[in-house]
Write a structure and sequence with these properties.
Keywords: Signal. This is Fibronectin type-III domain-containing protein. It comes from Aromia moschata. By secondary structure, the chain is mainly β. It has no helices and 25 strands. Strand 20 and strand 21 form a beta hairpin. 22% of the residues are buried.
């Protein structure tokens, strides 16, 4: 007797197929996606599998469909570090589909991929602020979980470092005329450190803050002053002089030998007229120019004062 058997959507003729032809493959085992984008699995052993159907979908619902006779599939064409769903289904010679296996994974950059920062820029936004900006090669930026920013300056034996999630960093403790070295290291997901990229930068010069008067002694024909200037820790630009401008009476530049300690600056102005008011504007001169000035009215003593 001749009859037709319907099974799993496939028409079988009783006179043409045996029991083994209806074998339903078990799911593939050890389904993994390697660093180089190769999908690997182990074939089921309960049936003779003819080929495998591969479906790949992303979160936007885009579907890729492929058939392969191998137990590997090259998925390196997929973008790096984007989550995809991979489904592998074994199929026998008689088009009997087995049970599907699924994994959720992403293609990660391999050891030969360029994982180094390929662009770096520093902008000085004001006297103490630096803005750092960097970029990664196309395709791998999605893979970066964090950036480690390392800062060395001419005074530090131990670097200052911080971890950021964006490709920018604002450094707010910069010192004019300081030499810096910045390091940027990408940290990938899963945790894997990329190479540290180093960049040297000299912070532009800036004038100092206005000087601060700490003492004054007025004589009959002279004036003694003591001034403090901005500390070396806050501005390393070399100081060359204090300028005392009381035009049209006098305009004096008092030389300064700059040192990291920057002690008080003492100077005396001689050959003044007795009992005379002078209005002096005092400023600091460094490699970047003249600081804001401080206006100081002073009056010499009269000739008779010294005998009182």
């Amino acid at each position: 007797m001749f009859f037709v058997l319907l099974f799993a959507g496939i028409t079988f003729m009783s006179g043409a197929f045996g029991q083994s032809d209806l074998c339903v493959p078990d799911p593939v085992q050890n389904l993994t996606l390697s660093y180089n984008g190769t999908l690997n699995w182990t074939a089921p052993i309960n049936c003779n599998v003819s080929f495998y159907v591969i479906h790949i979908t992303n979160q936007d619902g885009i579907v890729f469909h492929y058939d392969t006779e191998n137990v590997t599939f090259n998925a390196s064409f997929l973008p790096y570090c984007e989550i995809f769903q991979f489904e592998v289904t074994p199929v026998t010679l008689y088009n009997v589909q087995g049970i599907s296996s699924n994994i959720s994974s992403q293609v990660l950059p391999g050891p030969s991929e360029n994982l180094t920062v390929n662009y770096f820029n520093v902008t000085a936004s004001n006297k103490t602020h630096l803005s750092l900006l960097w970029e990664m090669p196309d395709g791998v930026e999605k893979c970066v979980r964090l950036f480690r920013v390392v800062v060395w300056d001419a005074d530090r034996n131990t670097p200052y470092d911080v971890y950021v999630t964006e490709n920018t960093f604002n450094f707010t403790d910069a010192v004019p005329c300081m030499d810096y070295e910045f390091g940027i290291r990408p940290i990938f997901d899963p945790s894997e450190d990329g190479p540290l990229s180093l960049y040297n930068y000299s912070f532009p010069g800036s004038v100092t803050t206005a000087p601060f008067l700490t003492a004054i002694l007025e004589g009959v024909t002279s004036i003694n002053m003591t001034w403090m200037v901005e500390s070396y820790d806050r501005n390393r630009c070399n100081i060359s002089a204090l300028n005392i401008d009381a035009s049209p009476n006098f305009n004096v530049s008092h030389p300064v030998q700059d040192t990291p300690e920057r002690p008080p600056v003492h100077f005396e102005i001689l050959n003044l007229e007795p009992n005379t008011v002078y209005v002096a504007r005092v400023s600091v001169v460094n490699t970047a120019g003249f600081s804001p000035s401080v206006t100081v009215p002073v009056q010499t003593l009269s000739n008779t004062t010294m005998f009182d």
